[in-house]
Write a structure and sequence with these properties.
With 176 residues, the chain is α+β, with helices and mostly antiparallel strands. Strands 1-2-3-4-5-6-7-8-9-10-11-12 form a twelve-stranded antiparallel β-barrel. A hairpin with an 8-residue loop joins β11 and β12. The longest helix has 28 residues. The relative contact order is 0.17.
């Protein structure tokens, strides 16, 4: 199944999640401008998934929960030279590796047998808010769970970019 979704430009508010035929599948709620946590609602407007960084903003681990707040899995970045790599631990449902070449916007989600579980790509252009296409092949990971994982990757990368930008701007000393 394919899903399409996007964040708002200021990373706050609600946005539709669409099927490949353009019909409404659910809603992505980026709850606050000052928080990176999200909620996902189904067609009945019932919360089915959520995601947030663990322990406020001090952790790089993104926790994905079900509608009742029970942990479904934990996403964490992994260091890999010349590529982007994440690991999603879905507990008894498996450990998934998420990778993308360094400058690519296309990601593969592989299960522990290195078989394709899902793939997604960022479809937006430069200076646009994040827009994504998800294709789920997994019987273990739900579509909305994967939307929460993708938003976790997006928020982790945004956080890393902000850290790099603030570090480089604070170390700049002009020649006089």
């Amino acid at each position: 199944m394919e899903l399409y979704f996007a964040e708002n430009f200021f990373s706050t508010g609600k946005r539709p999640i669409m099927n490949s035929d353009g019909s409404h599948a659910g809603t992505l709620d980026m709850k606050s401008l000052f928080s990176s946590s999200i909620d996902i609602y189904n067609l009945d407007d019932r919360k089915v998934c959520g995601g947030s960084f663990r322990f406020l903003s001090f952790s790089s681990k993104w926790e994905v929960t079900d509608g009742m707040g029970t942990t479904l899995g934990v996403l964490r970045p992994k260091f890999k030279l010349f590529s982007k790599k994440f690991e999603y631990d879905a507990g008894p449902r498996g450990l998934y590796e998420i990778t993308s070449p360094m400058f690519s916007k296309h990601y593969l989600v592989l299960d522990s047998h290195e078989e394709l579980a899902a793939e997604f790509e960022q479809t937006n252009g430069w200076l646009q808010s994040g827009a994504f296409r998800l294709r789920n092949e997994s019987s273990q990971l739900g579509n909305f769970e994967l939307v929460a994982v993708i938003m976790g990757i997006h928020e982790t990368q945004r956080r890393n970019n902000q850290t790099v930008a603030s570090t480089s701007s604070s170390t700049y000393t002009p020649n006089m």
